[in-house]
Specification:
There is one protein chain. By secondary structure, the protein is mainly alpha-helical. It folds into two domains: about 50 residues, no CATH class; about 170 residues, Intergrase catalytic core (hpI Integrase, Chain A, Orthogonal Bundle). The protein has twelve helices and three strands, in the order H-H-H-H-H-H-E-E-E-H-H-H-H-H-H. The chain has a three-stranded antiparallel beta sheet with strand order 1-2-3, with no helix packed on it. The chain starts with a helix and ends with a helix. It holds the Pfam family Phage_integrase. This is Tyrosine recombinase XerD. GO terms for molecular function: DNA binding.
Length: about 260
């Protein structure tokens, strides 16, 4: 803490704050966004100390908030995603549940919380779509790819009845081994567990969402359509995925530029 570096709060100065932030960045190897959060917290507390009369001037006033560059989302290849989807044991009810869950995450580009909150009546299996309640309680309808729908239907018909509790029935699509609705945290745990089994690093539910968007755009999907499927309020949020697949941009130039 900054207090450890200054013998009293009255000795706090911009130089000490800078040294503390440098320590966080170099010695503790915190990410830039974490260092920025530390500085924001120090600013608030310094203003409070200023209001108490402890300081005549704000020691953090002259410090510049670091600019945080927008990090490009990590999108695994289709081969890596397919390896992950194939990991759950097909001869176990929970394995088949997990396969359906993973397939739906990738096929629809869902957030973990969105998937956990899907009810049985949100699925329109005859139409091959699912109703999703996203951020800000905004509802959207997302098509389900045939392969994913097959796994979901098999889970509903054969495995979900074994997991459901008859004394406390739940309408949630995905249930735990005790019949309770799974949570967002459980979705994360399922993805991480199967990623570890497959020897895949840096995979979590949101990475499958990144893969969904990146693979659609790489296949030629319209940006506005992908925005709607993801439930992004602002197309600038979706736009970041156009910067991920650099190889496709090179292919476009090679194919269509008059002087490739």
């Amino acid at each position: 803490m900054v207090k450890d570096e200054a013998r009293s709060w009255a000795e706090l100065s911009d130089a000490r704050i800078r040294a503390h932030l440098q320590d966080l960045s170099t010695k503790q190897e915190l990410a830039a966004v974490s260092v920025a959060r530390h500085l924001a917290t120090i600013r608030v507390f310094a203003r409070y100390l200023l209001s108490t009369g402890l300081f005549e001037a704000d020691p953090a006033e002259m410090l510049i908030q670091p600019k945080i560059g927008r990090k490009l989302p990590h999108a695994p290849s289709y081969e890596v995603v397919n390896q992950l989807l194939s990991t759950p044991h097909p001869d176990e009810p929970l394995g088949r549940r997990d396969r359906a869950l993973l397939e739906l995450l990738y096929a629809c580009g869902l957030r973990a919380s969105e998937l956990a909150n899907i009810n049985l009546n949100d699925l329109q299996r005859d139409l091959g779509v699912v109703r999703v309640l996203g951020k800000g309680s905004k509802e959207r309808i997302v098509p389900i790819a045939r392969t994913a729908l097959d796994h979901v239907e098999a889970y509903i018909e054969h495995d979900r009845p074994e997991l459901a509790r008859h004394d406390k029935p739940s309408q949630r699509l995905f249930l735990s081994r005790t019949g309770q609705p799974i949570t967002r945290i459980v979705v994360w745990q399922i993805v991480k567990r199967h990623a570890a089994r497959a020897g895949i690093r840096k995979i979590h539910p949101h990475v499958l969402r990144h893969a969904f968007a990146t693979h659609l755009l790489a296949g030629g999907a319209d940006l506005r359509v992908v925005q709607e499927l993801l439930g992004h309020a602002n197309i600038n949020t979706t736009q970041v995925y156009t910067h991920v697949d650099r190889s496709r941009l090179k292919d476009v130039i090679s194919s269509f530029h008059p002087r490739p």
